[in-house]
Amino acid sequence: MKRWVTTFLFPRITRRFLLRVVALVVVALLVFGYVLIPLYLDGKSMEPTLKDGSFRFCWVPSYWRSDPEVGDVVAVRFGGKRRFLAKRIVAREGESVSFVDGKLHVDGVAVTEPYVLLPCDWNLESRVVDPGHFYVIGDNRSVALDQHVFGQVSRGRITGKIIP
Description:
Elements lengths: L2 H7 L5 H21 E5 L14 E5 L13 E7 L3 E9 L4 E5 L2 E4 L2 E2 L13 E5 L4 E5 L13 E4 L3 E6 L1
Antiparallel strand pairs: 1-2, 2-11, 3-4, 3-11, 4-9, 5-6, 5-8, 6-7, 9-10
């Protein structure tokens, strides 16, 4: 075996080497704990946009200087610091949201949603989004209304944008 291969695979354990390993571990913990959070998607609420069982990353800096936009697919902190829901933002604070025969209406106007491919028959009375909140919902609307997790979430629970 060539010398450089041996040196690469079996380095000498020196003080410098150990410092580099510690620095690498610290950087990885900071990046993957606070900036680029890895997510395993467990559930079908965002299909077909995000597949059940897939692996994605949440880019936290996307909302450090700006608020989320309608249409963004975001990670919503659900319970604790490491449990998230993947949802799409469909309305901002002050807007009214309703469903009529499966069609989303924001401020009384039907919204075109090309990402919703499965049939939906939801009916939901109009509700106004509270200040400091966003209305989120999954793309898979074929699930019965009472089995779907959706609604208003505070800005503080939106962790970042999910990288497709």
